[in-house]
């Protein structure tokens, strides 16, 4: 019963949602320890906490074909089939990058081609790093935009065959999607404008004669070097005497400033900033913010 899809599940691409993953990999997932201990009786609410705990992405590894927790959660999403709003919230939130990758992979499996382009293309602007486990059990670094590009271009990702989708041109011709707008268009236009301005300035400067050549004259000006006078020495001595007299007054002012309440507050604030913070409390606060968006109960620290 634990390995069956829910009764009210809808067919995806004409088949059972779990059949989108090949049978050999499915059986390995069912036999894995992570599936039996952590994925048993998971619901759409509890899977949020498991997605927050992810620390890397990947498919299968080692010679015995062991599945990663990421792939186990993908199969669990296919089994329980959560609402579309929850999956979109996974993709749109920016605090937990591995949860975003999980939602993007699941939407690529069950979503239509128009939804895939609509919700995954904005993730090209996410350049955060992701840890990826290879087939030999080693880790490498991949960026979020590279991972999204793999989902949109490749036929197989993490040893899972992705359903085929229509090309973007078909949706643009039918009016379902507008033309793709890249964030780099503004930068490219600004660079082109700056290059045109520089070329115009250079052409304008070459038309004028050089003013430096006119101002130069063969006659050299003589600089008058005068020896230091006694008045300068006397002024420097008087300044030194004044500084010696004003030293005690300056010291008193500095002591008063150091004892002022404003400086004590600033010192306290600096100490509070330098003190180490508990990363677990920050993670709990971010998780509670995400759970509040989904309408779930907050976690207790």
TrEMBL record:
Record-stated family: Belongs to the PRP38 family.
Gene Ontology terms: cellular component: spliceosomal complex
Residue ranges, compositional bias (Acidic residues): 184-204
Residue ranges that the Swiss-Prot or TrEMBL entry lists as coiled coil: none
Keywords tagged on the record: mRNA processing, mRNA splicing, Nucleus, Spliceosome
Domain of life: Eukaryota
One GO process term, biological-process aspect: mRNA splicing, via spliceosome
A Pfam family of this chain: PRP38
Region (Disordered): 176-284
Compositional bias annotation for Basic and acidic residues: 241-252, 261-283
Basic residues composition-biased segments: 213-240
Compartment(s): Nucleus
Tagged with keyword Transcription regulation: no
Name of the protein in question: Pre-mRNA-splicing factor 38
Native organism: Medioppia subpectinata
PANTHER family per the UniProt record, alphabetical: PRE-MRNA-SPLICING FACTOR 38A-RELATED
Lineage: Eukaryota, Metazoa, Ecdysozoa, Arthropoda, Chelicerata
